[in-house]
Batch of 4 targets.
Target 1
Amino acid sequence: MSDVLINTGLIAAYILLGIAALAAILFSIYHLVLNFKKAKGALFGMLFLVVVFLIGYFLATSEVYANVAVPVGAAASKIIGGGIITTMMLIGLAIIAAVYTEVSKLFR
């Protein structure tokens, strides 16, 4: 096949992917505005995740390590560390929730 045909197909796929992502975001916002009372739970969930990430971000250090494959700056290092700490906190919360659920089932 010709490189031109492959490149055109890839560009068309990227454009269609962008349109689909934009449509998904816009329809979500549209239905959020229409059904705001039903969406409160989802909004509280998103707010909870933002708060957990901010806690992880503020706990992370901005230390830059010299011997790494891809060197990053201090800001990127803090964001990456915040993401890792957030992941660990969410895993811990999931384990606590699973243990609580199983223990509460024993006493029913």
Target 2
Amino acid sequence: MHSSAILILAAGLGTRMRSSLPKVLHKVAGRTLLDHILRTSRQLYPEKIIVVVGHQAERVKESVDADDVIWVTQSSQQGTGHAVKSAIHELRDYHGDVIILNGDVPLLRPQTLVRMQQEHVSDDRAVTVLSTIIDPPTGYGRIVRTATGNLMRIVEEKDANHIQREIKEINSGTYMIGSQNLCSWIDQLSNDNAQGEYYLTDVVTIARDHGLKTALCLHDDHRELSGTNNRHQLSQLEETHRNRLVHEWMERGVTFVDPHSCWLADDVVFGRDTVVHPNVVIGTGCYFGEGCEIGPFAHIAESRIGDNVRILPFTHVEGATMSGDNPVGPYARIRPGTELGTGAKVGNFCETKKARIGAGAKVNHLSYIGDATVGKRVNVGAGTITCNYDGVNKYQTVIGDGAFIGSDTQLVAPVTVGQGAVIGAGTTVTKDVPADSLALSRTPQKVIPDWSTRKRKQ
């Protein structure tokens, strides 16, 4: 691949977002706009990546956990040309091509940039501009071609006349320019225009004035090149990216029953033959094995799910690990730190938190298991609670393999129930229970004959 440097412009105020958050830190599919474009950039293996920041610069820098980025601060926002000029000192000793990108174009694919790069190099161009057709073209700079179809110049919308405004081919804001030419031309930019800004687009005119070749790389998918100026555009990009992700996973053998009703993060991984039902939300950090089924209205995040797991409707899973063959839900809440062994079941209206539940164990319904270790083949009856918090500290409950916990049991931690032990229904366990023993704390039942008859007569 041809050597290049990448310059990302990410200093804008993002006024139309109406947000205290810098525009490039808004997210699409769980990943910030800037992170999307950085990931695309890295796939080109550039010699250097330079990011120009300005508005809330430190906050933007802190969002990127990487050491391969050179940060440059634009002291005041005076246009794209001024932004590039802020970074030009990082390019003066670099002899190669520079790819200039905007930090708010999250759907741009690396293969599109590779194509632009190949055309630029093979045709010995001074400037290549990535363009596309969009209707209506409102808000974008228009591409003005010569009579023979070559790139003549780019006119910003506010500077365009009524004829130029009818042009549907627009500037995507992505360029490839030789670094030494860029360094030479950047000081020749003028702010004599409707916005009083230094337009990077003017390098096209400067290059032509020097008799150098300028050309376009026309891309057929305008959605891929769309920027983010407001919340409406952000939602459109979210939808487009979701559709792209779903299509890619269906091509790999995943079924989406209603593809348009689901939301999934950019980094989700599915095994084949997994089925995703309508209105499912899958957040960042999720991995699913093969043959899983995710029921309607389930919400899953930061979890690793093994093969053949069935997550039933209206179940919320966060920060959990499931080994495989686990039925979970419906209406279960699986909180961070939960680990389910192979075949372990958590049923309807149950909640778990920091709970290790062994293979084949069952927590069937209406129970809370928190800060606990539950052994293999344990049966936890309905309404069981691990009382793990005394108002100051949290304590552990340990239940041995094969134990049977009767319904409506309270296990007051710290407490241990031995292997094979049985806890009678309605028991409050406050002391350790030895293996294979029976624990009861019920008040003996008292029966008063004919009490109801006498009461009715009264």
Target 3
Amino acid sequence: MPHFPLSSDTQYTTLLSRIGERYRAGRAAAITSVNRELLLAYWEIGRYIVEFEQEGKNRADYGTKLLRQLSKDLKATHGSGFSLSNLEYMRKIYHAYPISQTLSGKLSWSHYVELLMIKNETERSFYEQQCIHERWSVRELKRQKETSLYERLAASKSKEEILKMAQKGRHIARPEDLLREPYIFEFLQLPVDHRLRETELEKRLADHLQAFMLELGRGFAFVGRQQRITVGNEHHFVDLVFYHYILKCFVLIDLKVRKASPGDIGQMNMYLNYFRNEENREDDNPPVGIVLATRRNEGVIQYALEGIGNQLLVSKYETFLPKKELLRAEIERVLAEEE
């Protein structure tokens, strides 16, 4: 039998890699298939319940009583999967998705339970599409709901844009699509009266990189922090540098623990010029700069950005959860005005 060093043989290494990739793909497909079948089973059970209720004039009136009895009998035979709460969501999923083909096999039953908690159909549709596009776990979906992602993105859009976002999700096609207003860093768990320094904010975000990148959105790959730029024997440092693999460009983030100023924009503009000339590869698009501050003066920022050719964005961040009611009221105002 021929002998060869397994660890250094290129063909064998390739074989190992191919087997590993195929196994992972098969396992993922199997999990997806199981999720899909379980989801369809629960949808079908919901249909049975609704049809049973609708066949008798009085049955719909004692819906909760019916579910309690079903839960008791089914748990005795099939276990805890038939809790009263689960049966209620089975009925809800049939009402919300009367055509089973509209359910996504990429999402689990747990995803849909979270989605069914959202009463507004437009908002629910948005989160469903984002779950599919960005492959959110249930935990990530919960976090995005809690931080009012839909309201933050929709508050500055027209009715047409809101409806389009709900139907297709949020797609990244241009640098402006990266922006969220405001960014929410509640995962830092800071006291309300805590006074941050810029170096502390940067370190805390780097320490919570996974949560920070979830807040930034899909497509970001971390490059580094305090990236040095040397021009004319002077050293400057970019707080955080990412590469966006969808837009194919560097994204530079500068953090401020105060109101954004014209000087911040000038500084970021210099960083962008440097990266475009010194760091970009031939197939890279122009870099994007984001200045994150606690607040901003719209008029001052508008004039400061005028005439700048680089892709430069200024946004606010907050370290606590936003008041969803205020954001939702703004969306309803936009929809009502355009009606």
Target 4
Amino acid sequence: MNINEQSISADKRHYYSSSQGPFHNANNILMFFGGGGRSEIVETMIRSLRMGDPIMSVCGERGSGKTMLSLVLADRLKHRYNIIRYDLPLMSTALMLRHLLIEICPRQADLISANQASEGASQALIKQGLECLTKALQGTSPGHKPYLLTVDSQADINPASLRLLKQLANTQAKDKPGIQIVLFKRAEAGDHTGKPSRLIASDSLSQPAEDHYWLRRLTLAEISDYLRHHMMLFDFNQRDVFTREMAYFIADRSEGVFRSINTLSRNAFMIAGLEDADCISMSHLLTAGLPAPVEEPDPHGFLWRHRSVVVGLLGGGVLASMAIAIALLV
């Protein structure tokens, strides 16, 4: 009996249209794709951290893989560092201080309460919290391992929080940084297309220097590799399900952004599952890639749109009134 590796058996089809299907696990570090320079960036950052660089940043547009890279970096260094991850949706100096106090100085965590962190703490409390953190960072850390803070928030890093982080990065513990910091910043598309560069900020707290890395979009060849890599990890028999024509279409519609690639591919699998298809095809991708219909505003009001119903109701009301009047007269 010949086995067609490109077919999907009936008992597996529901996996390709459910939440457990391919391209749903965007932040699973086991699915990390090192193409597009991501692997080189991770290795370079690890070397820089081991050499003692106290602060660096990674910039990328929405959906470029910043969160995935931060998780991979933390996993690679979890045995060497005390990892602290800041991924709260909001960003402020008080919130950052409370988060760090809980992780580094748990006995002084109530120095800034949750309400004060949300509504804003006084400058006296902020100064006191900073002094507490600085003293702790200059002492002995748990397991004699240095701290590594990764900031991966949806909110932009405001200037006050950035100054706080740079002050903490200046602390020294036995001639080594008391804490090393990696900032993941959202950038607009096309802000930067060059190679990683070492940048120095312009404010008075610009020391230490900051290594800057940019996550670029994937090329057509890298998108083909990404699709094969992802499918091979999900289902080895389906590793070549995406043809070159399909990869080219995905590259054109997604413009090389991870989030868009995942969304388009995931929707195509869902459409294939709804059609009970044995395999994803170009037609499924075409359907998934169609732009959403634009609904033009109706210049007429509600009564005009439903005029036939309104006329029917009025006519029925008139006839009913006439029937009641005739019945009363009789």
